[in-house]
# Entry
Amino acid sequence: MHKPLILLASLASLSVATDVAMAQRVASTTLRRPRPLPPPALMVRQQKKSVPLQLTKVAIRAKVVGHLAETEVTMTFYNPNRRRHEGDLYFPLPEGSTVSGYALDVKGMMVDGVVVEKDRARQVFEAEVRKGIDPGLVEWTKGRNFKTRIFPIPPRGTRTVRVSYVSEVVQTRRGAVYYLPLSYRKKVKRLSLRVEVVKAAAKPTVLAGGPRGLRFGAWRDSFVAKATLKNVKLTKDLQVALPRLERRPVRVEQADDGTVYFSIRDVVTHQVAGTKKAKPRKIALYWDASLSRKGAHAKELKLLERYLAGLGQQGVQVQLVVFRNAAERTRRFELPAGRKALLSALRGVSYDGGTQVGAVKRVRGKVDLVLFFSDGISSFGKEKPPKLGGAVYAINDGAVANHAFLKYLALRSGGAYLNLKRVSVAAALRSIGREALSFISAEARGVAAESVYPRLRTPVHGTFTLAGKLKGKVGQVTVRYGVGQRVTHQRTFTIRRTEVIKGDLLRRDWAQKRLEELLVFPERNQDAMTELGKAYGIVTPGTSLLVLERLSQYVEHEVRPPASWVSMRKKYDAAMARKKLAQKKKERSKLKRVLALWKSRVAWWKKRYKYPKNFRYRDRSVAKGARRRRRPSARRPRPPRLQALRRANGGSARHEEADARAGKKGKRKAGGPQVKIKAWDPKTPYLAALKAAPARRRYAVYLQQRDKHGQAPAFYLDCAHYFRRVKQRRLALRILSNLAELELANPALLRVLAHRLAQVGQLDLSIAVFEKVRKLRPEEPQSFRDLALVLERRADRSRRRRRRRARADYGRAMALLSKVVMNKWQRFDEIEVIALTELNNMLPKARRLGLRKLPVDRRLIKRLTMDVRIVMTWDADLTDMDLHVVEPSGEEAYYSHNRTTIGGLVSRDFTQGYGPEVYAVRRAMRGRYRIRTKYFGSSAAKLSGGVTLQVDIYTNYGRRNQKRRSLTLRLTKRKETFDVGSIRF
# Structure
């Protein structure tokens, strides 16, 4: 196999994760039968068509404990062709289920997937790609389908896959029923089936489907039904009735680590007189008009129109707040006269910009009702809004949504979440304003109170489930239900350790319930979700399932083999013990290496570069086609005579004195160096259209052009830049925020967005985006460095008025840079020196605010001040960009001529992506420095669009009169060269 297989659940697929959480509730309360699912299929390409391979063997084992069931399906597929294939396995999951395991045959044995951090799984994948291998990938797709790539499928051979999932039993009018998909439309050579119901209150019965004559019999403390069939064709799903399940509402289970988990399933028969409240007099209406909602409001508008019409002729005031990346001013409409105007205003809304739910503000005055139309996914800025002043009815018809957040927003206020993908418009209308029964709280005795989930208000429709951990021999949980803030009734359950059984099904259920609440604020809780997934073996937005084949792969990526592979685990533990000893030696050698690099950089800084006045570089010719470390053919000039040195620009002690004077006086000379940046003006048709439009038509023209070019990130970058140039800054920020809507988990795109936000002074937003990048790309030093530098800028801005915040930002920034300095990186050699220079620049400012602790070895502390420092970074991995600086002498500094006569230095060339590449000179020669950049090429398999550059130009770097100018630009053609700007001393 030689290839890892990865199960990914990313924030970009947040709707799937949250939909699963919501579906678990729906599955336990629905009165309808689940729809039949298509059978699993392993599809391969033959003659440009996708065809299924033959499913030859199926082994199904199901275990039902109370209201939970874990189903394990092992499938063997046969490849009748003469060549090996790569296939995609599609495994439809029953509604309300979550994947609990995945395994693949390796050398005749089934190897389980290991739950690891999503980032680490991705790093393994990308590392294999860089080796020239195309790894298999397992991923979620919409509609609760489990999908995995399988490679290789040998010619006239087989591959075996095992998928396990956990689901809740379905509550129907006939009672509790376990459904098992068994609709295999073609004959299966061999099918084995085993269903076990543990400690059932009564003997289960087969209602429909399954093999003929399938019956349950007593076995130990369970009931078991099993069958083995050959050449069988099944067309109906198996339905197992679980009589009197409600008589045993409490289940207790002890996990392998000794922790005792319990689950409570309450069938709620208490009826509440849920009459509607009086018709509201004042309504707050929040309308999400971000780009992601474009085309998603038709059904919501229909519901709103019918609801407003149902208010009749009484006077009602509606306060409308349209929000995107920011909230617009509140508009008031008096009904019924203003009903048409309100609907017309909503139909005329332009959907544009990122989503910042935290930007929503409470309207003035008391409101009777809040209608909140949004998908609940904050792609930009803060994600938590304030309390909105009344019962919130969150309404959504989008295919992708943060259901957990919308449910939380509604239920904490006594309202309801109306998902129009699951609820009809008519049913939703009946729910608005009605006091619905919900779980309010749980009081625990003899139970770890912090372990009881759910904690948030939860709607109750027929059944309610709760999970927790038992501390002693006996515990009690009192569950309270009610409407609004009023408790209407409660029920007490007793949990006894004597009823415990062995297993981990309830353990997984507890973890899943905790995950549901963490998903309310996924950005804030990402680390907690990752740890939960690793600890409990469940897939979360922060974890993945990884299958590896060889010991070397497990050791290289520090992934412990699955517990089921005992021999491999022993070898791994021994290998890791040896590796840890080796790592300690590497850490010592790492410090030694960094010390050597830093010593070399300090020596460059201390050296006096001597050259005559009006020095001109005579021979600038470099052999054509020269590349990587070739030296220039020109001979360096001989050292000038003593008389010339006295007149030299760089030879006197004047610059040494200037550093000291700049620190005291704040200026080196009147006016200081002049920086000119060339205006970035890409020749694009949409910019031409904007420039030709009158001022009042610009935004309308932008929206028209977006229909043609809106899939390209460059469109939003260029248009935002244009609107900022014409002084329409709010519109510019709105347009720029669309980058967050295009791809939630694209680190390259997020880097561009964060740099541009920092460039326009939106530091808080920039930091929030860079935080996402750090989590998405922790294996890349740029993720830490970029965030550190923006934190420094915010600290610089805050240190007078908000000293505590500034101190925290400096401290965190230096910690991030020290990580860049001392960590081992697979690529980007000598980035440590760049980070050290920047860390030393921060240190004096941090010390002035009381920070004394050094984040690195004392031998690495030395502040390097410079007249000029130019830093270039870019967004594309596996891409080579080159920084060129033509000095006043005519000498050109770049990757293969990285030391110049006047002391100019160019950092190590990064040919595989991101940068930074740095030009620096401590004592600048008088004259003009021309800054150029060149797109040399890309070794990436795919590069969509151009490469976006970020160039930062510093003068008087490290001094109190330090100045910085920034430019973002985009290159699209290989070998393209662009003149960035110039500095004149």
In short: Residues 5-256 form a domain with the Immunoglobulin-like fold (CATH 2.60.40.1730). DSSP finds 22 helices and 44 strands in the chain. Residues 566-606 form the longest helix (41 residues). The chain has a mean pLDDT of 83.
